[in-house]
Amino acid sequence: MSAPHAQVQRADFDQVMFPNYAPATFIPVRAEGARVWDQAGREFIDLTSGIAVNSLGHCHPALVEALTEQAGKLWHVSNVFTNEPALRLAKQLVDATFAERAFFCNSGAEANEAALKLARRVAHDRFGPEKYEIVAAFNSFHGRTLFTVNVGGQAKYSDGFGPKIEGITHVPYNDLAALEAVVNERTCAVILEPIQGEGGILPAAKAYLEGARALCDRHDALLIFDEVQSGMGRTGELFAYMNYGVVPDVLSSAKGLGGGFPIGAILTTEALAKHFSVGVHGTTFGGNPLACAVASAVLDVVTSPETLSGVRERHARLKERLEALGAKYGLFSQVRGMGLLLGAVLNDEWKGKARDVLLAAEAHGLMVLQAGPDVVRFAPSLVIHGADLDEGLDRFERALASLVQA
Question: What residue stretch is flagged as signal peptide (predicted)?
Answer without folding.
Answer: none
